[in-house]
Design brief:
The complex is a heterodimer of chains A (76) and B (382).
Chain A lengths: L1 H11 L22 H15 L16 H10 L1
Chain B lengths: L3 H16 L3 H19 L1 H23 L4 H34 L17 H16 L8 H9 L12 H9 L7 H34 L6 H32 L17 H4 L5 H16 L5 H20 L3 H26 L1 H6 L3 H22 L1
The chains are: A mainly alpha (76), B mainly alpha (382).
């Protein structure tokens, strides 16, 4: 799950593919991912993992890093 | 909100609140205080708040009981939204229709008595829509009616928000006993003092200087008008952030933590970040219940990049008031968000630009440009 999320984020949202991206890189609060990208991320998670994450869970507080994303995905 | 009624009720309720030993009785006290406050400001609103709360609570139970029946949620949202349309937008919509009828003679003209706008209706309706939708999404459960009624009417956040979510509010009032803490009292009073300073000193003084210019704009030159616009930009920020501070501080006196509403919005490096820092409870609401669902309607780039931000922000503008200028202000921001998205995609394709955008000066330029964009937008809002 972690690898797939990192790969998707790197391919879709990062300006430079060689930017360091780990499970604890801050993505929303750092401005790396904006609201538009979050919609694509939500769709990706739904298609890839079959989990529909409600928008109120996709926030800078609870969905900022890949690690947090995995925790939220596991809740649904 | 800054009135003798508010602070009188706040102090009396605060003393009684911490004397009462049981949380359920404290919640009843807060509801009584809230209804007393609403009654003092607008008697008619008491009936609206009570009626809407009973109906939304019953709808919430039905949605929770039948989670797969989407029509119950849809009807509930339409019904709650109907209250807002009836009281706030019907006059505006009839006016738009009559303007059309001036051009098309076949259309009839309508006359309408102006309905009294119940106090806090925009806030309560948005709170109830989030409540019903969060139940549908499985994020929260209906709980006790008394907790929901307190959520709907809580006087510290009733008039000017923040638009708190039931999911965060419920666990705080549900517990057996909210523990007393001097740090909460300290923090609460400190936020109230900060809020009063922002509102009464900064916002009102700026308002005092710029009001004569706004009253006779055509008498002044371009630079003075620009100065008035700049002043308004800070006035509206201190005004609203001040109210939010008072609301958050007053709630904290009762041990209740309400979400932050402003985080240095004028230091945002782009318009998307601005909306993560300005009226956060509203922008989060727009993101969760408008932006995401609208984006899901189509995968087409034009829809997601242009129409969704413009529609969502136009509705955000209309939420502030039933008038064209609020809608234009919203569209202005929607276009800004759309332009940012196009810029981000362009940047991704041009690595040199992408590298340059990481420089410190680029960040400062972004802050300056975002501030200018937002400040120009206030021209429509005022």
């Amino acid at each position: 799950m972690e690898e797939k999320l990192i790969e998707f984020i790197r391919d879709e949202f990062l300006d430079e593919p060689d930017t360091e991206l780990t499970e604890s890189t801050k993505l929303i609060s750092s401005g790396m991912i904006d609201s538009f990208s979050l919609v694509s991320l939500q769709t990706f998670i739904e298609k890839e993992f079959g989990k529909r994450i409600p928008a109120p869970r996709i926030t800078a507080e609870s969905f900022d890093t890949v690690k947090q994303m995995i925790e939220v995905i596991k809740q649904f | 909100m800054i009135s003798l009624e508010f602070f009188g009720i706040l102090i009396v309720t605060l003393i009684l609140y911490w004397i009462i030993p049981r949380q359920s009785l404290r919640n009843i006290l807060l509801i009584l205080a809230s209804f007393a406050f609403i009654y003092r400001l607008d008697k008619w609103s008491v009936a609206v708040v009570a009626g809407l709360s009973v109906l939304s609570y019953l709808l919430g139970i039905l949605i929770h009981k039948y989670p797969k029946k989407n029509w119950i949620h849809a009807c509930g949202v339409v019904f709650v939204l109907g209250f807002l349309i009836l009281f706030k937008y019907l006059g505006f919509l009839v006016g738009v229709f009559n303007s059309l009828a001036d051009f098309i003679s076949a259309l009839p003209q309508f006359e309408m008595r102006k309905l009294l706008l119940p106090l806090g209706i925009s806030y309560i309706v948005f709170k109830h829509i989030s409540y019903l939708t969060d139940i549908k999404w499985g994020l929260t459960k209906p709980g006790r009616f008394i907790d929901f009624l307190l959520y709907s009417s809580f006087f510290t956040i009733f008039v000017a928000g923040p638009i708190e979510r039931f999911e965060r509010f419920k666990p705080q009032v549900e517990q057996s006993r909210q523990p007393f803490s001097w740090s909460n009292i300290d923090y609460g009073f400190m936020r109230i003092v900060f809020g009063l300073f922002k509102k009464l000193v900064l916002a009102d003084w700026i308002g005092y200087f710029i009001a004569p210019i706004w009253a006779n704009l055509h008498h002044y030159g371009q630079w003075t008008r620009l100065l008035a616009l700049l002043g308004y930009s800070f006035q509206i920020y201190f005004d609203f952030a001040g109210y939010s501070d008072i609301a958050i501080g007053s709630s904290r006196l009762f041990g209740l933590k309400i979400m932050e509403n402003f985080k240095n919005p004028y230091l945002a490096p782009n318009i998307s970040q601005f909306w993560r820092r300005w009226h956060i409870s509203l922008s989060d609401w727009i993101k969760d219940y408008l932006f995401f669902p609208l984006s899901k309607l189509s995968n087409k780039g034009l829809w997601q990049m242009f129409f969704v931000p413009v529609i969502a922000m136009a509705l955000c503008g209309l939420w502030h008031g039933a008038a064209w200028h609020f809608m234009i202000w919203g569209i202005w921001h929607g276009l800004g968000l759309s332009a940012l998205q196009i810029w981000n995609q362009y940047k991704r394709k041009h690595k040199q630009l992408s590298k340059a955008s990481k420089a410190t000066w680029f960040n400062y330029a972004g802050i300056f440009m975002t501030f200018c964009f937002v400040t120009l937008g206030w021209w429509w809002f005022r």
